[in-house]
Each structure stands twice: as C-alpha cells, then as structure tokens.
Specification:
The protein is α/β, with parallel strands linked by helices and 349 residues long. Helices cover 44% and strands 18% of the residues. Strands 3-2-1-4-5 form a five-stranded mixed β-sheet, sandwiched between helices. The protein has a five-stranded mixed β-sheet with strand order 8-7-6-9-10, with helices on both faces. Helix 2 packs parallel to helix 3 (85-102), helix 4 packs across helix 11 (309-321) and helix 5 (162-172) runs parallel beside helix 7 (217-233). The chain binds 5'-O-[(R)-(carboxyoxy)(hydroxy)phosphoryl]adenosine and zinc ion. 5'-O-[(R)-(carboxyoxy)(hydroxy)phosphoryl]adenosine (KG4) binds next to helix 5 and helix 6.
Length: 349
C-alpha cells in the first residue's frame, strides 16, 4: 500500500494531495479562477506565475493536513502531460526536486489518466474494463479502460471541448466565466425544447456518422446566429430558454455517445470525470439512460471531477503497484495521446 504525494498544475488549479492507495489523506486545491475571470479564460503566463507562488505553500499544507512527514511518503508524483507547458513545468520541477532531495521514486502522470482514476477514490472496488466519459474545459473523450496504463480512446471532440463550449456560449450571451455553472443555473428555469440546435455530428467518408466523436463549434456558431436573429426583433433575449436548449443539446450528444460506446463494447459501467460532470442536464440524461440500458453510471463527487491532485496520486499509486516509475529527466508535453502513456515509465513490467 503506497503512500503517494502528488502535484497537479496542468491548468489553473494548484493542487497537492497525499493518497494512500485510494484513501485521500489530504487534497489541497488552490483555484486561480479569480485571477483568470477578468480575462474571460485561462491566461497561460498568469497560470504559471500563480502556480509558482502557491506550490510550496500547497505542499506544506498537504503534509500538515495528512499529518505525515517525508519519511512516510513512498513516492512523489506530478502531472507531466497534457496541459499548459509553463504551468506543468512548475509542478513537475517541484516533484522531481522533492524526489531527489528525499531520495524517493518519481512517477509522472498523464492528466487524463488522473481523471479516469478519480472514480477509484470513491469506488475503490471498481474493476476494469469500464467506460470513462471525460468532459472538462480542455478535454472531451470517450475512453475504454482496459487496465492501469491501457486505454483506447473511442471518441473525442474534433474541435471545442464540452466545457469550452459552455464557456464560449456563456461569453456570447454576456454571462460570466466559467460559463458552465452559470448556464446550468439559468437552464433550471428555461425550456430545453424552446430552440432546436444542431448536435454536431462527424460525417464518415463512406457515409453515416462517427458513432463516438463529437463537435461543438457548429453548435456555438448556431447559438450565435440565433442570438443575432432574436436580438434583431427584441433586445431582451430569452436567456433561460437559450441556456436550457444549449445545455440539452450538449447533454444529449454526450449521453448518446457514451451509452452507445458502453453498449457496443459490452461495458456495464460508465465513470464520469471532468468539470462538466457537474452539469445537471448531463447527470439527469445519463442517469435515466443508465437505468434504461441497465448500465451503472458513476459520478465522483465534484471535488474529484474538477482538477485535483488526489486523482493524480491515485493513478500514480496504481503505477507504483505494477512497478512503474519515471526518470528524473522526464519533461512536460502540452499534448500527449493516452496511448503513448507507457513512454513515461522506465520500469519493465
Ligand atoms: O475539469 P475542469 O475543472 O478543468 C479542466 O481541466 O478543464 O473543468 C472546467 C470546465 C469549465 O469549462 C466549466 O465551465 C465547466 O467545466 N463546468 C461546467 C459546470 N461546472 C463546471 N459545465 C457545465 N455545467 C456545470 N455545472
Ligand atoms: Zn482536467
């Protein structure tokens, strides 16, 4: 049973956690939302500076909350890809320095594998194979989970991530940032059938549509056109109806793909991850589709859906179990497919 200290700085949350297998001993998260809010999105340079200012304090806080000393930590982990390069570098450099200083093994973690492992934090008995629907501000993927380190991405967005679509539509409706929670709140009082919006299907060269890939940029443009049309006749926009209709379209697109993939690949569990997992419309649709098709749908608590180091530590613990560790020469990568994940590790299984 390994005790792992992990650092996550891939985007706009500075997080340090200590996890003993799936047991979270501490999970410190400092959000930079206020810093980026004024710009309407994450500014990479601002993110790096904030991580730098916070990371030492976060490490100390995680150790203190877990009531552990360095001698009780078995390995040190950090997210090394994908993400903002400058932001990733802060966490990775801190983790590698600590590993060197305290003579501990170092484990680099793929951010998306972390999101997959978030489900284990509250469902430690979860056994692969299962399907993971990962929907965040930066990623939208339908992933078949075979075992630790073995994943097949069955579908992904061809353009905007689901969270990004929420943020962009919120901006064009003149709402704040991040847009997801605001649209979710407004949608409560709106009519999801008020406007018919395009789902964003991906055509295949031989005809038909890709069953698991999605696209949200056309939907965003459709909302923009609709808003301009509506504004021409009445400057008071039906914001709640627009929010509800947009949310319903995204939730339907995601649910349809996840359920189809689970059924096609004979996977009886769908685990959700990423910030958009908070969305009420998506939760409702997935829950009822799960009941209809006899699928188990796991929604980890929100603190583990949004970016956090506990999920990174949990993934690192699984790699530790199979003998994987990373060289101290490991660098960061802004993009990295899940299928390349084994390149992060030196140990042979
Ligand atoms: O996973 P996350 O915290 O960060 C990334 O790794 O991207 O996800 C943030 C995204 C944002 O785009 C935000 O608008 C969206 O998740 N989000 C939501 C909701 N809460 C957060 N989207 C829809 N409905 C929500 N309730
Ligand atoms: Zn994330």
């Amino acid at each position: 049973m390994a005790t792992i200290l992990a650092i996550e700085t891939s985007c706009d949350e500075t997080s340090v956690a200590i996890v003993k297998n799936c047991n979270v001993l501490s999970n410190f998260v400092a959000s930079q939302m206020a810093e980026h809010g004024q710009y309407g999105g994450v500014v990479p340079e601002v993110a790096s500076r904030c991580h730098l200012e916070t990371v030492n304090e976060a490490i100390a806080a995680a150790l203190e909350e877990a009531e552990l000393s360095w001698s009780e930590i078995d390995a040190i982990a950090a997210t090394c890809a994908p993400g903002l390069v400058g932001a990733l570098l802060v966490g990775l450099t801190a983790a590698k320095t600590l590993a060197l200083l305290h003579n501990k093994p170092f484990i680099g973690v793929h951010h998306l594998e972390g999101h997959i492992y978030a489900s284990y934090l509250t469902n430690p008995d979860l056994k692969p194979p299962f399907l993971c629907l990962l929907v965040s501000g930066g990623h939208t993927s339908v992933i078949q989970v075979h075992e630790c380190g073995q994943y097949t991405t069955l579908g992904r967005t061809r353009d905007d991530a689901a969270g990004e679509a929420f943020d962009k539509v919120a901006r064009l409706l003149g709402l704040g940032y991040p847009g997801g929670p605001i649209i979710d709140q407004l949608a409560k009082t709106g009519n999801p059938q008020a406007f018919s919006l395009p789902e964003g299907r991906i055509s295949l060269p031989k005809g038909g549509y890709h069953p698991y890939d999605c696209s949200f940029s056309g939907l965003k443009t459709a909302v923009m056109r609709l808003v301009n049309q509506l504004k021409a006749s009445d400057p008071n926009l039906p914001i709640a109806d627009l929010a509800a209709s947009f949310q319903e379209t995204v939730a339907k697109a995601l649910t349809k793909r996840a359920v189809k993939a689970a059924l096609d690949y004979n996977l009886s569990t769908i685990a959700i991850g990423g910030g958009v997992a908070a969305n009420r419309g998506l939760r409702q649709l997935l829950k009822s589709a799960g009941e209809e098709h006899n699928l188990e749908v796991l929604f980890p608590p929100m603190k583990y859906c949004t970016d956090n180091a506990a999920m990174i530590a949990c993934a690192a613990a699984a790699h530790w179990e199979v003998g994987d560790h990373s060289p101290l020469t490991l660098g960061v990568q802004s993009r990295m497919d899940l299928s390349k994940l084994q390149t992060l590790y030196t140990a042979t299984r």
